[in-house]
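Wait, mind explaining this?

_____
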Amino acid sequence: MAYTTADTAAHRSGNPITNALNGIWNWLISISEADHKLRQVEKLQSLSDDQLAKLGLKRQDIVPYVFRDYYYV
């Protein structure tokens, strides 16, 4: 999994082209991360209930488990 950080205040140049390219870059990164998460959900969904139990998961907990770093609850 790729982790990125951006200090937008420090990198904001005021140049609209640079800002647009940075926005596109961040969008592409989010698509890449989402695709990885969806593949992880599909992999876990393909496991049997016994296999999930060995991992400490229930079928209804797969999506919250995979996307747990996006939840702010």
